[in-house]
C-alpha cells in the first residue's frame, strides 16, 4: 500500500504532464476496490487476471514450496485473492509506456 500512497502523492504532477498512472495487480477487483476507497486514490487499479500481462513482460514467477506454506500459514491464499492456483506472483515493476505501447522507462 505504501507504493500506492506514493503514486497518489505524485498523481497531480503526472496528470499535469499529460500522463496517467495506472496500477496493475493480480488481485481480484473485489479486493482492490476496498484499497482504492481506503486510500482515496485518483487513479485506477486494474486486475491482471491470471497474470497475463506479467507473463507477457516476463515478470511472473512461481513461489517456491516453502513460501507457499508460509503464505498459507498467514491465511494469504493466492487462489482466493488472485484466482491463481499455481501460486504465481508478479515482480514489482514500474514502466513509462507511451501511447504507442513502447516502454520509454523502466524501474
Walk me through what this model shows.
This protein is α+β, with helices and mostly antiparallel strands and 107 residues long. The protein has one domain. It contains six helices and six strands; from the N terminus they run ααβαβαβααβββ. It has helices at 2-9, 11-16, 29-39, 52-56, 65-73, 78-81, and strands at 22-25, 44-47, 60-62, 88-90, 95-97, 103-106. It starts with a helix and ends with a strand. The mean pLDDT is 90.
Layout of secondary structure:
Blueprint: H1 2-9, H2 11-16, E1 22-25, H3 29-39, E2 44-47, H4 52-56, E3 60-62, H5 65-73, H6 78-81, E4 88-90, E5 95-97, E6 103-106
Q: Choose one word for the global shape.
A: globular
Total discrete domains: 1
Distance between the termini: 18 Å
**Class from helix and strand fractions:** alpha+beta
Whole-angstrom Rg: 15 Å
Residue stretches low in confidence (pLDDT < 50, at least 5 long) are none
SSE pattern: HHEHEHEHHEEE
Mean pLDDT score, rounded?
A: 90
- The share of residues in extended strands comes to 15-25%
Q: What's the count of strands?
A: 6
Largest sheet: 2 strands, parallel
Tally the helices. Answer: 6
Key traits:
alpha+beta, 40% helix, 6 helices, two-stranded antiparallel sheet, 107 residues, two-stranded parallel sheet
Question: What is the gist of this entry?
Answer:
This protein has 107 residues and is α+β, with helices and mostly antiparallel strands. Helix content is 40%, strand content 20%.
